[in-house]
Design a protein that fits this description.
Elements: H1 3-15, E1 27-31, E2 41-42, E3 46-50, E4 60-64, E5 82-95, E6 103-110, E7 117-128, E8 140-142, H2 152-161, E9 172-175, E10 180-188, E11 197-220, E12 222-223, E13 229-230, H3 234-243, E14 270-274, E15 277-281, E16 285-286, E17 293-298, E18 314-319, E19 326-327, E20 334-343, E21 349-356, E22 369-373, E23 379-390, E24 396-406, E25 415-419, E26 423-432, E27 441-447
Length: 449
């Protein structure tokens, strides 16, 4: 047992109730502030969205947007070309693969045209689970340098929201006419780990000056003559793309949109979704009355609109028939929320802003957002958000705050502001919805009594 785990265990033992005492039953708290739909909507930037199968044991095509012509398994190719701005998201895990071989994730960019195409990597990051383990963090942590994270998806999007591009990604990838190039050829090793489980989360913002197709593939490491593992070559990736079928095992088949009975299965995403950012602009936002608040949901989805009826989920432009009908969870989508706060009263008011994770509901069965004390133990949101606003002296302030929230957890505000009477205060909230989180969340504004 590690030192940290030992310490957690000893602290838990110290505060645990004696066997003769009866623990207090969980308490449900209903927050009855109004919940209103978030203004704005998604842009139309396409996203290469590779998240199915999430757990890979069988090598093959994860997602191919190439034309099916000339392919051994035509149904593995969706025939969708990118040009201009697009994003790329790939999020996959592997466990106990055959002979503990290293699984490689390859991403190929193909230029079908007669002129060379340049793909710029504007921002990009890729992390293994062993480099960003799922460890418990404080509910809130100041994170100015991107050093607080829990999970590879959390760490990858934290880099991108800061405008970073990892050193192992080129600033520009030049793809000659009629040829392909590797954008990524990275391992997901499991050998020599305490448990043979690992994963990789990759997120990039890209810009192409011409038409390209993209494919993500999974292949076990090849062997050198001395028996050591090596990474697959471009030719080997191209052969798998041409002759291979879909990687496996396949995830659960999603519930058809028209089905209204039985269990609802969202399933995992594999296809091209539409929308890389959601811009929410309020013309003016009068702060609530003292003691009152208002909430705006983030990343609402089918059966989880929190009483607003608003589904923010990105639609799929192309998809495989056994994968999600929509990009549930909006992994990798950036939310930009502009809050022009106005105090219409005749006295100075104190405003708090917080992001929280209530229980998911479609209709608010108790008349408000439901929380629980203590919260359920499993984390539902782990990611960094950026707050920008003038401090009380008028000086511009930028804060990166890492959140680690359990479902139903009552949280402290991330921002506290004072606004003089008849005055305005501009607040900007930005976040990239982090993989391995579970929607929806809410942004809540409250005026102190």
């Amino acid at each position: 047992m590690s030192y940290i785990l030992s310490l957690v265990y000893l602290v838990a033992q110290a505060i645990a109730p004696s066997p003769s005492s009866t623990p207090a039953p969980p308490q449900e708290i209903v927050q009855t502030y109004p919940v209103q739909a978030l203004p704005g909507g998604l842009d139309r930037v396409p996203v290469f969205n590779s998240n199915s199968p999430e757990w890979v044991k069988k090598e093959g095509v994860l997602l191919s947007t190439l034309p099916p012509t000339g392919k051994t398994v035509p149904e593995a190719h969706l025939n969708f070309a990118f040009s201009g701005r697009f994003d790329l998201f790939a999020h996959h895990y592997t466990h106990t693969p055959k002979d503990l071989q290293t699984l490689y994730l390859g991403i190929i960019v193909h230029n079908p045209g007669k002129k060379g195409v340049t793909v710029e990597v504007l921002q990009g990051a890729s992390y293994l689970m062993v480099d960003a383990p799922f460890i418990r963090k404080p509910t809130q942590s100041e994170d100015p340098n991107g050093e607080v994270y829990s999970g590879p998806g959390d760490r990858a999007v934290s880099n991108v929201i800061r405008g970073r591009r990892q050193a192992d990604f080129p600033a520009k990838l030049v793809v000659p006419p009629g040829q392909s190039r590797l954008l990524l050829n990275h391992p997901i090793p499991v050998r020599n780990l305490e448990k043979p489980v690992n994963g990789r989360s990759t997120f990039m913002r890209l810009q192409s000056n011409g038409k390209v197709y993209v494919a993500s593939l999974a292949m076990f490491a090849k062997k050198n003559s001395d028996g050591a593992d090596r990474s697959p070559t471009l030719a080997e990736w191209q052969n798998l793309l041409k002759t291979g079928g879909l990687a496996g095992p396949r995830d659960k088949t999603p519930t058809p949109p028209g089905q209204t009975t039985g269990q609802f299965i969202y399933s995992r995403v594999a296809g091209v979704s539409e929308g890389s950012s959601w811009k929410a602009q309020f013309p003016q936002l009068n702060i609530p009355q003292p003691g009152q608040g208002i909430s705006y949901p983030i990343s609402t989805l089918k059966h989880g609109t929190l009483g607003t009826g608003q589904i923010q989920t990105a639609k799929m432009l192309v998809r495989y028939p056994d994968t999600a009908y929509e990009a549930h969870g909006n992994y990798g989508i950036e939310y930009n929320v502009n809050l022009p706060l106005y105090n219409p009263s005749d006295r100075t008011q104190t405003i708090s802003l917080a992001i929280a994770t209530p229980f998911k509901e479609d209709k608010l069965t108790q008349g408000g957002l439901r929380f629980r004390r203590p919260p359920l133990d499993f984390p539902f949101f782990r990611g960094t958000v950026r707050w920008r606003y003038p401090d009380d002296a008028g000086k511009p302030l930028t804060r990166y705050v890492h959140l680690w929230q359990r479902r139903g957890e009552l949280v402290e505000p991330s921002v506290m502001l004072t606004i003089p009477p008849k005055s305005r205060r501009q607040v900007q909230l930005d976040l990239i919805y982090p993989p391995d989180s579970t929607p929806p969340q809410v942004l809540t504004l409250k005026t102190s009594e």
